[in-house]
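Fold description:
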Amino acid sequence: MDHETPANVQQAALHLRHLLLRDYRGRWIRYQRDRERHGEVHQRAVTDVLRRFVDLNRAELAYREVSLDSLPQRVSRALRGETLSRATLELFIDAFAFGEDDSRRLRRIHDGTDKIRVLPGPNALSPETAAALGPARHRTTSVHEHHCIGADGLPAWHRTQQVIEATEDGLDRYPYRCDTNALAIEVEVGGRLSGPLYPLGDGLFALDILLDEPLALGDETSLTYLTLFHYDEPPPAEMRRASIRIMRNVSMRVEFHPDKIPRRVWWAVWDGMHGDIIERDECALRASRYVFKRVESIEQAVVGFTWQW
């Protein structure tokens, strides 16, 4: 891709190509006249879809000035991620009848707003709990959450791989926080437990992971820790990550046992720890058993997956 193309435009073009390959392939494959190449979007077939749509909608103001001769170049540059104007993006959305969720996501990526930032609403953490969390001494530069649901529909285990950077000299511990005490923690890489869980208030619990070595200001280290659950009663059908301070390069995966596959799954944003869902997008299961989501960053937000059995 052209290095001068803004990153958000590149990402929108990549996501557009992904949608055309995965979810909307059937709308252009009928126009392909030569041999199909696996894993590729056929440029001429996609152009034919746009051309037919423009021809049929010339009465609409938005398409009166669209030059049919320009469509092959528009498609080529869009699929290569070189140029994708908002007008061209909207043409793709209309011509391929993208769903509401896919359209909203494409626009957010193209606008450079595909990151989660939800200011705490009336159901956010209480001032007492925020005070108990204490001042931040680190920032998270990368985190991957892998959550596994067992055959009984209960959380079985959760592995977190995280990279943290010290924002103060002498950082010697990472503060682990959770919303249940029905669990056990095992640190696999980067540190050791300092003691048992203790109540923090507002339904939260805490413990510290002592780092292998103290970090100087600006130093980074990686942590991998495993959470094993032992619920007596089923918890809500969700996996969430709360962040008061900014966390970058956040990815989340929920994997379901083959004998316990949900009927529907959504990516969601909650109004604080105890509030309702304020935004959600339905997700398709990958390989029929897991969902995955990556966002650039989250800040002052509660995000994750929720599902129905």
User: Anything to note?
Assistant: The first helix runs from residue 7 to 22.
